[in-house]
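Appendix B. Extra example for self-study. Work through it before the problem class; the solution is given directly after the inputs so you can check yourself.
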Amino acid sequence: MAEITISALCHSYDGDLSDRSRLALKGIDHVWLDGGAYALLGPSGGGKSSMLNIISGLVRPTAGRILFDGREVTDLRPEERNIAQVFQFPVLYDTMSVAENLAFPLRNRRLPAPLIARRVAEVAEMLDLGPLLKRRAAGLGAADKQKISLGRGLVREDVAAILFDEPLTVIDPQVKFELRRKLKLVHETLKLTLVYVTHDQNEALTFADEVVVMSHGELLQAGTPEALYERPSHSFVGRFIGSPGMNFLPCALEGGEIRFDGGRLPARGLAVPGRAKLALGLRPQAIRPAAAPTGIEADLIEVEERGSYRIVDLALGANRIKMRLPEDIPLPAGRFPLAFNLSSTLVYADDQLVGDLTHA
Amino acid sequence: MHKLEDNRAWFLVIPVFVLVAFNAVVPLMTVVNYSVQDIFGPGQRAFVGVEWFREMLRDPTVQSAFLRQILFSLLVLAMQIPLGVGVALLLPRSGWKSSLAIILVAIPLLVPFNVVGTIWQVYARPEIGLFGRLINATGIDYNYTASPLAAWVTLLLMDAWHWAPLVILLAFAGLCSIPEPYYQAARIDGASRAAVFRFIELPKLRGVLTIAVLLRFMDSFMIYTEPFVVTGGGPGSSTTFLSIRLVNMAVGQFDLGPAAAFSLMYFLVILLFSYVFYTIMKLNNAR
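Solution. Structure tokens for the complete assembly:
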């Protein structure tokens, strides 16, 4: 168990830090608290796997430091860091039985046989692998194989953290749910620091206490799933999280009013940096058809039924926005007024959150 | 809609039938035809049944050539498979160094068989060849035209030079196809280099090594050109392998009947051995 601190981490795969645009990681600071369940979320190629491999020691960062419980580990090799890592595809030693697979990390460390047998039995018990111990690992299903990969990490008693690199990619949907619950259970039992890389927001939001969003080698936001959903601090986070993602309307602040194509809203007390590019961020849930005129009128373009709710495409001035409407709210036709939930109407300056319109 | 009446499909496969007939069935049947007859001259022949087969099985020169052949093939496999895997492990896996290494390794495969023979015939000569002179300079009496041992060593080295690259290329391709996470997981598990080879690389190489063993066995069991050029089967008959004995019989002594019986059995033995090898390795893989 460990608290993992990352400070000023930069990484370039060719070792050249001069061109910032080509860095895999662009100066990241973060603390992964001991025992926390973290999801590392972002699009492919955003630097998530690089980050994970740097924590486990498979990749040495070009610059920056990693500390486990305040102890510098930047130059330690993976086997010296006591990290368990589970990869996207199950990694097994095909010629060994399940029990031998689980025992392998301990055998390599030359631990006494009775201790190895005890640890293997414990881990097998925890992961429900008991009945399979004698079987050859190669013949098992993907879910069991992933459990064995995880078990090989857990079998060491002094594991500092478990890292998952999109571990459910090759798992059938039916088994996925069960395996995810198992992972969560293991985490709760062992109270290990857990970092879970995924590009699937549902997986991240349901799994983690804290979600860390990365894109283009930068850490954009770290926070609870609620915080990420309700107050994305970067417009990318707003677009990336939620289905559909946040709507963004280009706007301008003039005389205490936010003006955008199609309407205006009072915004007294809102301060934005000069010359910044402004945009209004609106969750599709924060938009509703209004009974009385509100000064904002939109045209209905398309309705997509999604079971208990509908996704409605609207034209607001020159912009297209999406509204998420529960099925019990009737849908007006043609052109109709819209109401925005002001506490959920966020203002972004150069993609950074600067506030909402509540105080107006 | 059934179109059972349309037999045009047969018409379309005729080219394949013709091709297979001319390159396999017809020549093979000619050999079968010779193997059951005693041919005295044009138009003069007698049917002898399986007499030639019986005679060939009893022929001591054929028997010793067969044992020699098996020994040669086993030695070839024992040398070239470990050598090929070993060299493949040392090759760089990516970048221009990798491409260059592959090209250099593959060069011997592009040399025609009789040229390989000629190269080694000269290279290993004790009086003028670089290799032969060098060995003799170290005080070892090495002369492949006089000593059977020296002749065998020369042929085995030559075959390794010519064909180990095939094993290297196959093993290299196998190694390159192992996904990176296997190596990463092994590092996290604290596996030694030897354990990585034993538990990751070797199991993953199984498929390509099966192919390498089969190819090297069949090729070495049929070897003709290179030993013919280097030693001509000598000294004495110490390097007279099956194919050399066969050619002497068919072309030298013009014993077409016995030679035909011999070739059929030779062909069947290769087929049988390959089948057995393949079955054993497939069973191994499935287990």
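Self-check: Chain B has a mean pLDDT of 87. If your reasoning did not lead you there, revisit section 3.
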